[in-house]
Amino acid sequence: MPIHEKCKKSIWATARQDVTAFLPCRHIIGTHDFKAFEGAGSPRAHTTRRVIHADLVKDHEGYLIFEIEGDGFLRFMVRNIVGTLVDVGLAKSTPKDFKRILLSKDRNLAGATAPPQGLFLMQVNY
Questions:
Q1: Residue 125 in domain
Q2: Exposure letters 7-21 (e unless 16+ CB within 10 A, then b)
Q3: How far are the Cα atoms of 26, 29, 109, 126 from residue 86, in angstroms, in the given order?
Q4: Which residues lie closer than 8 Å to 73 by C-beta, 6 or more apart?
Q5: Angstrom distance (rounded) from CA 57 to CA 62
Q6: Among residues 14, 87, 96, 106, which is most buried (max CB within 10 A)?
Q7: Domain of residue 102, residue span
Q8: Average pLDDT of 1-23?
Q9: What angle do CA 1, 62, 70 make, to 5 degrees?
Q10: Where are the beta strands (DSSP E) in the chain?
């Protein structure tokens, strides 16, 4: 795929990030209240969700790919998690900050909402 096509489907493709700083994605595995990562106007009854799998992998071209699997997601939840993980990867915050943000239930502490480019729904299980 030509690089200009790949960049249309990815976010922060040129940002130099510390991959080991993405270890906080492990903090979201399990059942948690994800209110800190909920987007405004989310039509939900509650903000507790279960994340079964969350990982960051590097593909053969060097792109970082965030994978997440759960029993349901809040509006913009994944994009807000990614935006916050990017802040950790760019050393704007720390892995401890990420955990504190998750536990705080305060959206104002989380990172920016990642743009939708590069976000793909891969599979739905029932």
A1: no
A2: beebbbeeeebeeeb
A3: 14, 18, 14, 31
A4: 49
A5: 9
A6: 87
A7: 3-109
A8: 53
A9: 90
A10: 30-33, 48-58, 64-70
Domains in the chain, number:
1
Supply the pTM of this predicted model. 0.83
Q: Six-digit token pair at 86?
A: 């990017």
Q: What is the CATH number for 92? A: 3.30.70.660
Q: Which amino acid is at 3?
A: I
Q: What is the pLDDT of residues 38-80, one digit of tens each?
A: 998 888 889 999 999 998 877 787 777 888 999 999 999 999 9
> Which residue has better confidence, 25 or 19?
25
Token pair recorded at residue 66: 């965030």
Q: Does residue 52 sit in helix, strand or coil?
A: strand
Inter-residue contact 70 to 49 (CB < 8 Å): yes
Indicate whether 90 belongs to any domain. yes
What are 103's two structure tokens?
Answer: 């536990």
